Write the C-alpha cells for this entry.
Amino acid sequence: MVKKQNIFLIGPMGAGKTTIGRQLATRRGLEFVDSDHELQKRTGVDIPTIFEFEGEDGFRLRERDMVDELSQREGVVLATGGGVVLIPDNRRNLSGRGTVIYLYCPPEQQFERTRHDKNRPLLQTPDPLARLRALFEVRDPLYRELADIIIITDRRSASTVIKEILQRLPEPD
C-alpha cells in the first residue's frame, strides 16, 4: 500500500530538513511547510522566547498541536523540529499520514552546521557538542523506528540528498 503523498522530514537540528524540504517540495510539486517556522509565525515570537516563557514542555505541546494540524494537509512536505519524535502523538500522526524520511546526521556534523546559530535554545550551553551527542543518543532510536526511509546527509550536498530521496520515494498516486 502506498502511503499518502505527504512527505515528513525528521532528524536532528542541522540535518538539512528545511533546505532539503523546500527543494524536495518544488521537485514533487508539493507545498512546503516547516513546523517551527509556522509556529513562530503564528505566535509572533521565536522559538527561544517560547522556551524562555513556557519551557521545553510548553514548546512541545505547541509543537504537537502544530504537527497534528500540518500533517493532516494533503500534498505537503513537512520539515519538523528535531525533538518532534519525543511525543508519541507526533510519531503516530506522522507515520499514519505520510512517508517519513529520517535525515541522518551525526552530532559532529550537526555541531559544524549549528555552532553559530543562536536560535537553538537547546544548544545554549557551555558544551553544545556534548548536548548534541546526548540528544542523539535519545532521539536516534526514535527516528529510526519511525522512518520509512533513512538518508545520510553527512558531508553531502542538498542536490545529492534530494536525488537519493526521489529515487527511493514511492511514485505519487
Summary: The longest strand covers residues 99-104.
